[in-house]
Amino acid sequence: MCGIVAYVGNKSAAALLIEGLKRLEYRGYDSAGLAVVRGQDQGIALCRSVGRVSVLEARYAKDAAIYEGQLGVAHTRWATHGKVTEENAHPHIGATRSGHTVALVHNGTIENYATLRKYLEGRGHQFYGQSDTEVLAKLVAELYEPQKNIDLERAVQLALQEVTGAYAIAVICDREAHTLICARKGSPLTIGLADNAYVVASDQSAIVAHTTQVIHLNDYQVARLCAGPSDHGSNEPWSIDFRTTTIDNVTVEQQVTELELDLQQIELAGYPHYMLKEIMEQPEALRTSMTGRLDLREGRVVLGGLTNMSRDLARARKFIITGQGTAYHAALIGEYLMEEMARIPCECEYASEFRYRNPVIEEGTFVVAVSQSGETSDTLEALREARERGAVSLGVVNVVGSTMSRETDAGVYLRVGPEIGVASTKAFLGQLAVLTMMALYVGRRRHLSQQTIGELLTELAAIPDKISQVLKQSEKIQACVEKVVDRNNWLFLGRGYNYPVALEGALKLKELSYIHAEGMPAAEMKHGPIALIDEGMPVVFIATQGNQYDKVISNIEEVKARGGRIIAVATEGDQHIERYCEGDFIFRVPHAAEPLQPLLTTVPLQLLAYHAALQRGHDVDKPRNLAKSVTVE
Ligand code: F6R
Questions:
Q1: pLDDT given at position 185
Q2: CB within 10 Å: which end of the chain, N or C, has fewer?
Q3: pLDDT per residue over 505-516, tens digit each?
Q4: Dihedral, CA atoms, 412, 415, 418, 424, nearest 10 degrees?
Q5: What is the DSSP secondary structure assignment for residue 207, as one 8-state letter?
Q6: Ligand 1 test: best mutation among 435, 630, 631, most atoms within 8 Å of CB?
Q7: What would the CATH number be for the domain defined by 472-618?
């Protein structure tokens, strides 16, 4: 949600910033901009535009020489305060009393911006837009007084002491041509230590092309990054140095860590879209996720991240699994898994609800945060709330080094590789695989027999190959979609483990193709939504063989009797289902134990949403109004 990239070093900044923005564009794409310091006291060159990074790039390319400089900040926006206009695009500018200019990019929200704006207007600052970030740029400029030893670093510290809200910022000033200041609270920010340069970005994908050595800033920390020509007498022509402090100017030591990401993982590799790439790489992603974790010989699950608390887990009294969006759907399946396999009471709740409703946390409660990014603001705050109340916190997170992974007591990484497509696909399957392994891990320590767990592990290990079989139906799904893509209302229905799959199928369809879709338990339809069904309305049933198969068939009958058009996800070899829908409208999945079925039944629904979005002419990797990693409330 908003992408920041900043650079200080011995290369030209602008082209490098644009390259970084392209990698971060999935975080927001309403508008984009960059600012470059043209040299000591040479002013700042600013370029901003509404729309995608490509629009900014074209504008920059027309006058590239203006943007020559080795220090700059850039931003791709997902609008919160203020409309999508050029004035509200970042970077934002502030004028200092000494006649210099400050430029600032920001990810987050400044909650007390109205009060600060009033104060700054009283001090003579003229505002050109409505963005909360503009207030911050002007506040830094207002506080900047080098003649009183308040340099850019100090001005940023002082400004942040006045701010409530969330921020990751990068700030430059034309009086300090080799200094980049950045800071964070609540929104992610990573600093890359490259050769003779620092590259700062909202996430690792914009850093990995330059370096794998990084520092993760923590909340309320400020980094001062300097890179410039060495003093006379030095053997090195260029010198770099950094320091980090709190916003109260207390020095903090930083640990440099190594990124577990390589450039290849974030390239399209011949696919037309990241989403399709990520759907297609699910078999391999799950294999990687499970590698070394399934001990088939001994019939046990090995989760290194939980080893230190395995005894506590076995004695757990309650689990609360939380997340948002797709991660919430995974959490719902996690609830079923945990209760069935570990026989421990488990609740699943939207993180955004949990954090504000005074939940009861008793002794022995474990709170599990499920998140691809590990940065989602609602989930992070729910986690903090739960810890504050004494819960043990666990993370089921994909991004290594993310805030959640650092703030939880323990956890298990998804290990499915970076997910760039805004709509979550492979991370969802990764979350299911990890939650399944966690449930088996705890269950084995309580009552699951070696034989039962052995059988489930063998089935789990076979899932990646079964997903490959499902993926072969992509063209068939495309053909089916062609016949119904003009319909504007859809239902997705399932029972048991496939009920959250119905929710996920509906979410994928609506967020990508902008078709209105609702997911619900199949039985719930009769309690109201059945009124929606009219001639030809597409109703997708997850109708795999299992305990509730007959009940699902009854629900299918009810829809069919009212003229609905059935699309079924059904088990291979099930001929009975053919009575209710045309052959083209049945997507097959191989047989699997019920708790593992979502790992298969989700896949045709991902492809369905993908093809529907394409056929409706939408950008599947950048659906309108959305951004990956929602770091605001
Ligand atoms: C939907 C989607 C979102 C995310 C949600 C949580 O396709 O991607 O619903 O699942 O915003 O994000 P994470 O998992 O990063 O916490």
A1: 94
A2: C
A3: 999 999 999 999
A4: -70
A5: T
A6: 630
A7: 3.40.50.10490
pLDDT tier for residue 20 given thresholds of 50, 70 and 90: very high
The whole-number average pLDDT for the span 248-264 is 89
Any idea what the Cα angle at residue 273 is, between residues 270 and 279, rounded to 5°? 95
Atom 16 of ligand 1, residue of closest alpha carbon: 371
Domain range list for the chain: 3-263, 269-468, 472-618
Look at residue 333 in the predicted model and tell me its pLDDT.
98
Q: Which fold has domain 3-263?
A: Glutamine Phosphoribosylpyrophosphate, subunit 1, domain 1 (3.60.20)
Ligand 1 residue neighbourhood (C-beta within 6 Å): 323-327, 371-373, 376, 379, 423-424, 507, 511, 629-630
Are the folds of 269-468 and 472-618 the same? yes
Long-range CB pairs of 407-414, under 8 A, 24+ apart, other chains included: 407/380, 407/383, 408/369, 408/383, 409/309, 410/305, 410/306, 410/308, 410/309, 411/305, 411/306, 412/303, 412/305, 412/306, 412/437, 412/438, 413/305, 414/289, 414/372
**Is it the case that residue 422 has pLDDT exceeding 80?**
yes
Domain topology for 269-468:
Rossmann fold (3.40.50)
* Minimum-distance ligand 1 atom for the alpha carbon of 423: 7
